[in-house]
UniProtKB/TrEMBL annotation:
The lineage of its organism: Bacteria, Pseudomonadati, Pseudomonadota, Alphaproteobacteria, Hyphomicrobiales. Keywords: Cell membrane, Membrane, Signal, Transmembrane, Transmembrane helix, Transport. Belongs to the binding-protein-dependent transport system permease family. FecCD subfamily. The chain crosses the membrane at residues 60-77, 89-106, 112-135, 147-167, 197-214, 234-267, 279-300, 306-326. It comes from the Bacteria. Coiled coil: none annotated. This is Iron ABC transporter permease. It comes from Candidatus Devosia phytovorans. It is found in: Cell membrane. Residues 1-17 form the signal peptide. PANTHER family: FERRIC ENTEROBACTIN TRANSPORT SYSTEM PERMEASE PROTEIN, PERMEASE OF ABC TRANSPORTER-RELATED. Pfam families: FecCD.
Amino acid sequence: MVLVVLLIATMSVSVGAGAVPIPVETVWRIVASKLAPGSVVVDWTSGRENIVWEVRLPRIVLGAIVGASLALVGAALQSVTRNPLADPHLLGISSGAAFGAIVVLLHTGMFLGLVTVPLFAFGGALLATGLVLGVASFTRSHSAGRLILAGVAISFIITAGGNLFIFLGDPRAAHTVVFWMLGGLGLAQWQQLPFPLIALAVCGAYLIAKARALNAMTLGDESATTLGIPARRFRLTVFVVCALLTGSAVAFSGVIAFVGLMIPHIVRMMVGGDYRRVMPLSGLLGAIFLVLADIAARTIMPPQDMPIGVLTGVIGGLFFVGLMRWRRTGEQ
């Protein structure tokens, strides 16, 4: 409940922050007037109303959805791979989703309408997941560290393929694609939000409902099987669900790294390793983190927006180093 209140408060402050500061009270009154016309007296300018309703609120809502999605994916992957470093970015899933989106944006066009980018991003994420598992099986690299290496290798290959498609695409669209690859929420629109929101509602509900099975998977395949969980089939299902969730997030925000790595670890430090608490709290904390990161991205060098993926990359990289140091100290 505390995190829910904190998320609402953070989103309210975030909508008001920016090059044109707007009081939180005005933000809520504008939202109320949009949801229930005539419920409040309009004493603000149309410019402020457009900034709140058309520009900032969609990107804040998208940031919360993407943050929750990536954090849930990271927590689930860390369980089924029994790898504390598992993350959709390090395992190449985000790169696969980005590759699918690049193909649509630069070459095929939106021939299926608004669902084209999410569908191709999901296909790319699923392809990357399959390649990582295939490489791990082919090289018999089933340990935690080697699975990450397989993911990094696949990520490099897919990123190279994406760069080639950018090189071969329309140079006039390259700037937009590059900004999108760095991660950003500035292109958010109300009509796009139902897609990542539905994916989060369906896939997030599934992952949270399977918290007991995720607990069992952390004990190993044999222990999970003795508890009645078909370990291999369940792991494959979780990978597909995570690919769908990652693809829907990357399709509208670009590649935002390390959220899935950091947030589950922070939650475990707060409440322990029981996935019945880790999963929902990871979703809430991931949403809060990305909303806060978006405030920083919009205020560090105004009037320009810093790509949010750059910011999370710096924070995540430092967290990654700290995590390795902490684990090394714990092993000694």
